[in-house]
């Protein structure tokens, strides 16, 4: 077979060679198979068995949900059950199997397609919503008829490279590195949470490949090059030899970088910054320590809520936050309060899907409405603060009134604990993420209300440039070097410093080695990046001189194009140490 190369977006570095595992096999692969008159009864029985099996599955899910999350959540499955009990639909499939003498799965799929077409004609939104229930149930029935189950990514037996149209962050969170050695998807961008999760798990990945899942097959040999964003199917011998060389190079480069582990992130002329890690769960702590991270600049707590049918309570959260704080002491741990919504769903909270989820009911907006959930988290964070190295940070703050409301709840919660005699650290630092353009504009007001800012460029870029961070079609517009983005960052750092608060960055831009010199020159105090990026970022910081990066920042702020800004940074880095750019050059 001839080698085929697909170009996508480099999501998580590293090279892997393996066999393709197509996630969620497409049901359209079902083909008609003629049956004899004698087989009609058998085929109908097979169909009825599949319905019984599906009904059992749905009842089990509903029962589990009722036990763990209450009736209100489990009622959601009633509509699904109605589909498997729908006499008209069943009668139609049975009749057609007899008339057309074709296999049950083919007939069932045809009937469902007719239903879908009919539903799409109806103007009523409620009825339209029921369509997704029908499709979900239909998928289950087909899986039971064909024996093809949607795989559970947590329990794959072989080492595979997963190829999928899309993977939710919750799917990625289930992956085990021993089985899923790499993955590639049609959709997504570098700052989608699926990509961020892949980096956190150190699984090489490429996203935004547009149509790869439709053109490859299970078992095809594949190379995922997560460093440059290439996926190669049926790699030639020359390609495999090159990949093996690059793998060795990368391993050598990484082990050299690891030698920096115990050194501070300090420029050659002694200007020191904090280089911390972004984590998704307590299990990430060994990676933070192994890569030499100085604490945690962003603990994304929402993964607590994903892939489970219940809501974590105060005690469970306290145990996790306390463990992270204890393990990293005296380095600090910034716990970000819940940021569900956007591209993070699939929790027992069942946040409804929205047309525009990144601009919708997410993060602090959700918490301000669900104060029961918010307060439980704040109590857990406050209790963990007794370790004295915990800081709290609120996401998606957009202005004064919102922050005032949040801080009032924070104070109320502290008072509750005081009244109950529960200890916490009263001088704990409180910060906000700057990720909404409005917050940049009123940063002066907000800076007086908190102890620090952390710039969330993943969102700040998408909102500033109106470019959805997970949409591969417009990924070329999602550019951290866009002059508007740099001006905003400059403004936030300046305003923070004028108000005597420190300013960090926990968006992915902080881990992009081409941005590091500029951010350093702009005066950023803390870089928080995914653990695997720490050695590379530290290498860059420790190779630079403060005077040079200040000059660079000053120069690029005057430039009108992102490309010119990027080139200026490349020029500086290559004049210092060209090996720093080895992996970057492949991407350019
Ligand atoms: C950000 O927006 O930059 C950020 C760090 O938060 P998240 O990626 O979780 O939205
Ligand atoms: Mg964000």
Protein model, in words:
By secondary structure, the protein is an alpha/beta fold. The chain has helices spanning 39-69, 71-74, 78-84, 87-100, 104-121, 125-146, 169-173, 193-201, 212-215, 237-258, 285-290, 314-328, 363-369, 371-384, 400-420, 437-441, 443-447, 457-465, 483-498, 516-522, 534-543, 546-556, 562-576, 582-587; strands at 4-7, 9-12, 15-22, 160-164, 180-185, 205-207, 221-225, 230-233, 274-279, 296-300, 333-336, 390-394, 430-434, 452-455, 502-505, 526-529. It has an eight-stranded mixed β-sheet. An eight-stranded parallel beta barrel has the order 9-10-11-12-13-14-15-16, surrounded by four helices. Helix 8 (193-201) links the parallel strand 5 (180-185) and strand 6 (205-207). Helix 1 (39-69) runs antiparallel to helix 3 (78-84), helix 4 (87-100) crosses helix 5 (104-121) and helix 22 (546-556) packs antiparallel against helix 23. The model has no long low-confidence stretch (mean pLDDT 89). Bound molecules: phosphoenolpyruvate (PEP) and magnesium ion. Magnesium ion binds at residues 395, 435, 456, 458-459.
